[in-house]
């Protein structure tokens, strides 16, 4: 079958009848018509439609070597540097369509599944309870059916002490509680599945941590409507359906959820590994997961930075403050951040190398540097937008107000140098939705922790950076 269109994606999600809870209520009926999910699913459907547009098809797909059917380019296992650039350009098309606002656009997880398949041979190295063939089967199925995925790696924040021992009688962190002829049985919970319940599948992987139990070390993928699996959502940040009032949240609110496993049976043909801490550590750190996932994420974040820079400059032009040096300094700060991110991604592609299985991995070091930079600059760029907008970010009437009898007052007193009042308010509401609404502040927190704890990221960069040659240079000088 290969690539699908938006209607096919929506129909498939609607028919799954996945167990999803919002505000204490179990969702009934079509997800694509629910106020909390309607906007994001329509936006996601438009991405699938893009890959079917004739003028974009060559840029967004490749032909299956087995069937000749068009497959989403994010599934391509790159063999050359040009393949890497093609994949990046495809991700840019989807990211620009959503202005970088969709952290779980399908190409993110497609790249994750591709990277798992490309590194599956790691699980053959004398490890018990490992089934790399199941990863390859899933990869082929995902390409054939154009499946969508979310993932959950994080355990509940019960106790973040280094010496955290789970003393609960019932599992809190999801773990294997039984193994039988049909598969493994999982009970407990995992955190933060973005778009949890809104995808065909959920990929579950144990992120390695200290004092992890063997029963907690597993990886698998199962359909989102698997019996015993439920998604408990946070409060929706959709401000309303009006694109004027809520230009971003009405389209891009992805939703985050807790994933609860209530004695969920994971069939053996869906298990990648289980009861194996070494496999969990080795596969996470030696597979190409970080290379390809980070490459896609940074591509999206660059597009998002372009978007926020565009908003900032349009605010400057609208209120006519471009001659102030402190404004010029702030915009230059954003430009420097953007161009630094672009340069690092290009460096990762230029320094890419073939791995032991013949796949072209982008260089990890520039990607790690960029993933340390963005969590710091994104909150700052949001602050810059707030500082430029100043009090104009606060007094923002709604679309309904402009259609009421006070419309004349609004048009008189809220006009700008080069914009009508409704045009000015529309821009300022966009800046507000990006940086100050519940949707916007979630975006800031999301980007701040997308790659994990920023302090841990910095520590990892320091510990793995090749410093020896620089130290040797100093020792030679001193000698």
Q: What is the CATH C-level name of the largest domain?
A: Mainly Beta
Number of domains: 2
In this structure, how is the largest beta sheet organized? 6 strands, mixed
- Structural class by SSE content: alpha+beta
Note the overall shape.
globular
- Stretches where pLDDT is under 50 for at least 5 consecutive residues are none
Give the mean pLDDT.
94
Strand percentage: 5-15%
How many DSSP E strands? 14
The residue fraction in helices comes out at 40-55%
- What is the CA-based Rg, rounded? 24 Å
Just name the CATH architecture of the largest domain. Beta Barrel
Briefly, what is this?
This protein is of the alpha+beta class and 479 residues long. It is 48% helix and 14% strand. It is built from 17 helices and 14 strands.
Describe this protein's structure.
The protein has 479 residues and is an alpha+beta fold. The protein folds into two domains: 6-284, Butyryl-CoA Dehydrogenase, subunit A, domain 2 (Beta Barrel); 288-478, Butyryl-CoA Dehydrogenase, subunit A, domain 3 (Up-down Bundle). Helix content is 48%, strand content 14%. The chain contains 17 helices and 14 strands. The chain has a six-stranded mixed sheet with strand order 2-1-10-11-7-6, with no helix packed on it. Strands 5-8-9-12 form a four-stranded mixed sheet. Strand 6 (175-179) and strand 7 (183-194) form a beta hairpin. Helix 5 runs antiparallel to helix 6 (132-145), helix 9 runs antiparallel to helix 10 (325-350) and helix 11 runs antiparallel to helix 16. The longest helix has 31 residues, at 289-319. It is globular and about 75 Å long. The termini are far apart.
